[in-house]
Amino acid sequence: MKRLLASSACLLAVMLGCKHPAPTVPQMHSRASLLIEQAAAIPGSKVNVGIQFITDGGWHIYWQNPGDSGEPPRMQWQLPSGITAGPLEWPTPARMTTSAGTDYGYQGTTVLLTSLQIPNTAQLGAAKVSGDLRWLVCHDICIPQSAHLEAPLQLASTAITNESAHQVLQSASVHLPKPLAPSIRAAVGDSSDSFRLTLTPSESITKADFFPADVEQIENGAPQVLERHGGSVALNLKKSEYLHQEPQHLRGILVLNGRDAYQFDAPVQSAAKRSGKR
Amino acid sequence: MKARLTCALVLVIAMAASAAVRTGEAAPNFTATDSNGHSQSLAQYRGKYVVLEWHNQGCPYTKKHYESGNMQKLQKLWTGKGVVWFTVISSAPGEQGYVDATQENDYVKRMNASPTAVLLDPTGNLGHLYGAKTTPHMFVINPQGQLIYDGAIDDKSTSDASDIPGAKNYVTAALEESMAGKPVTMAASRPYGCSVKYAK
Fold first, then answer.
1. What is the distance between the alpha carbons of residues B89 and B56, in angstroms, rounded to a whole number?
2. What distance, in Å, lies between the first and last C-alpha atoms of chain A?
3. With an 8 Å Cβ cutoff, are B190 and A100 in contact?
4. Does the CB of B192 have a partner CB in chain A at under 8 Å?
5. What is the mean pLDDT of residues A212-229?
6. Residue A93 in 3-state DSSP?
7. Which 3 state secondary structure label does DSSP give B130?
8. Which of helix, strand or coil describes residue A254?
9. Which of B60, B151, B189 is the closest to A142 by Cβ?
10. How far, CA to CA in Å, does A187 sit from each of A193, A223, A266, B35, B138?
11. Which one is predicted more confidently, A58 or A26?
12. d(CA A174, CA A113)
């Protein structure tokens, strides 16, 4: 009690002696948590994991390619020896217009998915899955946030599902882009100022929207014009003014008919290369 | 003749404003008032290198470079070599980063910053003339008045100060190459940071 009084007095003295008002803690506009699909996992198995973000109304976080401003969340995993985390899988983002240009991100609830590989040799017992997460949340202004996330996982001879996490991860996986249907042939060509993404056959395609996975490839705010040529459609993507080196591949998410999201990765058949200029 | 020349100059500025500035071309002239009430124009510094640094003291990316001392170090290094360094604030009144002259001078003192001057641009005219998108957004102009760099401060587009030691600083690279008589390898890059808080 005495110590408490003494420390209160100290605090008071500091407060009174302070010339400047104490810096206000910036109000946090998003929260993050770690979800593990299993309460118990068997050595040698893969465990699905999600990083869930919830933003306040009007605030957003960013996709892996943030667009003209912003930056993607970054997770620094701290895992028990032998356990490894896979790459993050990102749901299809929304295109957002800001005063700096066009950004790609998410509002409301967003779950980034990945999986943990548990080695065969892992010892049974409690394992702590944790990591340091940094992310940026923006509205008109941006606030960098960070959090230490942690969740328990038992390594056991029988697997036990964590039902609530399982449900969140299941519904999150619906928002991931799917592999492009094998019936659709995709090719990418280019000219000096644009990439041309051709899809065949074209019958079922009335609208196409491309989200580039890499920064500085296409002009994020430029209209993406869809042209129809016989049995194909071509989506014209204006090259970024910051494109310094012709990419080997165009990677990203292709949304068809405003509804179906596909993973996209195709080599660029450069016109410059074809004509032997380079 | 004089009138015709003025007309031509006005036209050049108007064109630059509509098409934004491009590296390799003439940097458009401007006149602005600094935080000490002095008038500053680009033309009066012909013959010197000029750096423009778009600034917003509330922006996490600006904080990255000021709280780490990185921006002050650059200002000291280059103004020490005769470079003119203008910090430019284009935040509109009521927006993040807007400051009056007194507040800005307090900030410069507190942060131990040493720009040649801080240009107050609450109308956003100077920002729009150069197409400044983010804070920071850096421009380098050579002694002949040509824009030789337009873009990010460095190649690590994060708000994390621990990325600074491993980053390649594009402003330093442009100044070093140009002063050595070489062309600037990276003349334009995607600026990163907060959007400039222009009047809505």
1. 6
2. 79
3. no
4. yes
5. 94
6. coil
7. helix
8. strand
9. B60
10. 17, 20, 6, 55, 37
11. A58
12. 11
Task: Compute the distance between CA of residue B130 and CA of residue B126 in angstroms, rounded to an integer.
Answer: 6
Task: Tell me if A71 and B151 make a contact (CB, 8 A cut-off).
Answer: no
ipTM of the complex model: 0.80
CA A226 remoteness from chain centre = 26
Contact B194 A98 (CB under 8 A): no
Residue B96, min C-alpha distance to chain A (Å): 7
Provide the token pair at B31.
């006149």
Name the residue facing B198 among A99, A101, A244 (closest C-beta).
Answer: A99
d(CA A47, CA A202): 39
Q: What is the pLDDT of residues B76-129, one digit of tens each?
A: 999 999 999 999 999 999 999 999 999 999 999 999 999 999 999 999 999 999
Q: Nearest CA to B31 among B150, B120, B140? A: B120
Residue B86 contacts A, CB cutoff 8 Å? no
Q: How many whole angstroms separate alpha carbon A30 and alpha carbon A87?
A: 23
- The one-letter code for the residue type at A223 is P
Where helices occur in B41-153 by DSSP H, the ranges are 60-67, 70-79, 101-111, 125-130
For chain B, the structural domain boundaries read 2-195
d(CA A18, CA A12): 10
B68 touches chain A (CB under 8 A): no
DSSP B13: H
Best B190, B196, B197, B198 residue to mutate vs chain A (most A CBs within 10 Å): B190
Could you name the CATH architecture of B2-195?
3-Layer(aba) Sandwich (3.40)
B124 to chain A, any CB pair closer than 8 A? The answer is no
3-class DSSP state for residue A202? coil
Count other C-beta atoms under 10 Å from residue A81's C-beta: 9
CB–CB of A141 and B59 under 8 A?
yes
Superfamily covering domain A27-176: Thiol:disulfide interchange protein DsbD, N-terminal domain (2.60.40.1250)
Cβ–Cβ gap B59/A142 under 8 Å:
yes
Among A68, A98, A242, select the one facing B189 at the smallest CB separation: A242
Distance between CA atoms of residues A261 and A179, nearest Å: 9
pLDDT in tens, A65-79: 999 889 999 999 999
CATH architecture of the domain formed by A179-273: Sandwich (2.60)
d(CA A146, CA A135): 6
B115 alpha-carbon distance from chain centroid: 10
Please give the share of chain B, as a percent, with pLDDT higher than 90. 88
Instruction: Give contacts of A136 with chain B, Cβ < 8 Å.
Output: 60, 159
Q: Among partner residues A71, A141, A216, which is closest to B96 by beta-carbon distance?
A: A141
Give residue A175's identity as a one-letter amino acid code.
H
